[in-house]
UniProtKB/TrEMBL annotation:
The keyword Translocase appears for this protein: no
Keyword Signal among record annotations: yes
Organism from which the protein derives: Chitinophaga niastensis
Biological process (GO), any one: proteolysis
Superkingdom, natural source: Bacteria
Keywords carried by this UniProt record: Signal
Entry-linked Pfam families: Peptidase_S8 (PF00082), Por_Secre_tail (PF18962)
Name of the protein described by the UniProt record: Putative secreted protein (Por secretion system target)
Limits of the Peptidase S8/S53 domain: 205-452
Family named by the database record: Belongs to the peptidase S8 family.
Taxonomic classification: Bacteria, Pseudomonadati, Bacteroidota, Chitinophagia, Chitinophagales
InterPro entries attached to this UniProt entry: Galactose-bd-like_sf, Peptidase_S8/S53_dom, Peptidase_S8/S53_dom_sf, Peptidase_S8/S53_subtilisin, Secre_tail
Amino acid sequence: MKQNILKIWPLLLLLLLCRNETAAQKKIYTDSLLLRYATDTFSRTHSTAPLLIKFTNAPTEKSLREWGLIKALTSHHYILRQLPTDSISLKKIVYCYTANTNWKATTLLLQQLEKLSDSDSITMQVSYGDLLQPLAYANIVTTLPHYAAAVVRIKKQDWTAFINQPAIRIADVLRHPSPEIIINTINPFVNRINIAQQQFPAIRGKNITVSVKEDLFDTTDIDLKGRYVPSPGVSSINSSHATIMATLIGGAGNSGSNGLGVAPEVLFSSADYNVSLFPDDNAYYRQYAITVQNHSYGTGIENYYGAEAAAYDQHVLEADTILHVFSSGNIGTQTSTSGRYQGIGGYANLSGNFKQAKNIIVTGGTDGAAQVMALSSKGPAYDGRIKPEIVVYGQDGTSGAAALTSGVAALLQDAWRQRFNTPASSALIKAIIINSASLPRGVLPGYDHGFGSLHALGALQTMQESRYRSGVVSPATPAAFDITIPAGMQQVKVTLCWNDPAAAVNAPSALVNDLDMVVTTSDNKQYLPWVLSSYPAADSLKMIARRGVDSLNNIEQISIDHPIAGKLHISIRGTRLSTQAQSFYLAYEFTPLQTFQWQNPVAGSILNASQNTPLQWQTSYSGNGDLSYSLDSGSTWLPVAQNIAIAQSMYNWPVPDIFHKILLKLTLTDTSFVSAPCYISPMLTIHTGFNCNDTALLYWNAQPGAAAYQVYTLGNSTLIPYSQPRDTFLFVPKAQVASLYFAVSPVAAAGWTGARSYAVNYTLQGVGCYIQNLLADKTTDNKVLLSLSLGSTYHLKNVYWERISGKNWATLSTQPVGDAMHFNYLDNSPWEGIVYYRVRLETIDGINIYSDPVSVQILFNNHILLFPNPVSTQLTILDTQIRSRKMLITDMNGRIVLQRALEDMQEVVSLQQLANGIYNCSIYLEGTRIYSKQFVKQQ
């Protein structure tokens, strides 16, 4: 008897919890989730329908898997395939109902539907499975058959029947992306881009094509010139944000140092994100040889595995050599309002479901000290996976973080192609980027910073030193590798990545093929990957990573501090495989116990004078030290800073205003580290002296200590040396030089070249043939002040001030030029009306150069002036005020021959229809005549 009671106890408890129809109807009006997702009855007698269950506490991931998780609505509400069977779990159930099929729709779509009347229609995006027959109740707008998705329009009254169709996997709103904050500068130091470029000068992204998916960048920008690959389907909108993203990825640095991107020789393509948030057609990537696509945009928080997420996973699996790089988003302070992590502030706020994909890389943003910014969107992914994978410096957001990562990916692909002449797998590039990412000592992976900060130098070193492996596992065949750990290592780190098959849309967990990695050291100790708690509570998500079996991510990382020297055995097995075989890649690195490397400046670096520059190093040393610099090759040292923490790895130095070769030194208690020679240089400013028909004059400020100046002009895509004069000016013969862009650098007596100026287009500096501008301003006492600014005084002798008199120009005054660039003249006796002025410049060769005329309006005693008089075709009327007036013109018999309204201070009246003769012009303000004047009309 006791045993029978124990057997039926769960059923009795279930009957108490799962209400009858009356109770259900009473509850359904007081709970919005019941209203959306529950039927009005509960039945398990003959039904296999999913259940809507609310728990008092969030269940564990293991329990949810056992109960057949279909969808997490919140941390307490779940759509499950079956009820818990143990009494402890049953006691934690608040209610359970048979679920309707609304769980296949996103929360935002259901919210929109709830606002509509039954007769209203709505357009939405749907994904479907096997279609045995066409979708019913819907008008198809567009389809994406490759990804089993469509845009449809339905009536709200047909919603239940539509979503009940078994083929429907998910229904979602149509979303519109937006760029995630403009990044206006590049800092190549934080992520070691500058030293990567210096140490690997031959790797510049050549023959790699990067697609920028958003609006169209400026294809004529001089930093992108000559490298745009036109393609169909680009946006009709030109975007400064897209231009900045392209510049960060691969700007040539023609405009200046801020215009130098990560991979300055990549080719660029553009894809319009306004058309679709799905991957572009496979033919687009193949035709234009695209292997990196940058996505610096987002929507809102979308914590589900939607159609786009599945599509990107599918696309990468089909096209293994394409790496998609996404920004995590700039909504890191927002809180998710749906999904398992609902209501947990500061977590799970990635901006777009496409960022929930597995086979992409998502980048968060840091400040200049590599600290994660509050605005940077954070993980976990909807199912607990680690997102973002890495963090990158992004001055104002994560857009630039993604762009810099895309640039580093292009460098890695270039390095691979130079060695093997084939495209690299995106899983390999991803493994190398993630494994080389840096973390402060003692810090482990986390949901805010992923696996660490992008480290461009470390990534290229991993590639060039072949510290990677590839393999394949099958259900019956694991894979294994041995690598040798050298003596004296502080840490060894190994990262495993694979491109996983796409999960079903709306899947509760995205991972399909589960690979597990274990490493064994030579002393027979085994180490598992780092895993994070994905339990939906803030305290759990903040917990430090621990070692364990990872059943969520297609990225696994193992690091070991102070590893024993000798063989490291890496074993990888397929714990759960849906396919016959799964390929994978892994990357590894060693960190020595005692190491120091200057990373800014590097050999030959040019530090801009009078600017703050981050001095950076990478070291395993700790404690404090002193920074100093030398101007005499190390004979004497001048202080920079004292007693700074070595572990900070950076110090912002206000660089002195000098033009000199220097050395830097960091001094510890018992040792010191001297940098390679580098240089401090002011940046010159280049000006247009004149821009005449056949010649332009360029000039710049003199640099003390410079023996010459290197002038550059824009070639096909980069600035190239043009001339090296000793003077501070240069004549440009237009017939011989096609480019309009020029820049200049000072050249030291020792032969080294200093900082290059910003490049200027000499035709856009506001300077004509010597004359920059001529202004005419009326003074309060009706005199005229003329102001002249010149671009140059080279070979000029005199300035002549001229005023028109009738049809001729009369000279008012003459001034010698001398060294002045600005001239003034006061006309004490202008006449009434519109007065025209110009200047005539005389060169020492007797050549005259004229300015364009300028004009000024002069009125003496009258508020209104009429001229010319006599007049032939047009009469001009001037007024000192802007007001509405009426003009009447009458002949000598008093008959009105012309009338019109006057609104502006200057009005022109056509008189061509009037016969020759004498007329009277009267002007009225609010019915009162305020002006009257006779004039003569003649041919």
